[in-house]
Design goal:
Order of helices and strands: HH
Helix content: 55-70%
Oligomer: single chain
Mean pLDDT: 78
Distance between the termini: 34 Å
Amino acid sequence: MSFPIPGISIAGITGIAAPGGVSSAAAGSSSSGADFASVLASSLDQLQGAQSKADGLATQAATGDLRDVHDYMIASNEARLATEMVVAVKNQAVSAFNEIMRMQV
């Protein structure tokens, strides 16, 4: 399943239906810790790219070389939303880890 934010693509997570009832492309395949790690690493790389694009356009805006301010605003908002998404996923992962650690064996 992928989201419309180009900064982050969450593909490879199974068992989650996309809006409109469309299942993820990786449904039915087994997932392991390595798959989640690769998805997470890929998402962080895409986040880095979105941040770099926004920084480059901000530099162009500061120097007066930017032709269209809309491009900067869109890239800036995409980077902000992607960062918020990554932070939310991180917080949920930490919360899940803490819950697992509290379990009685």
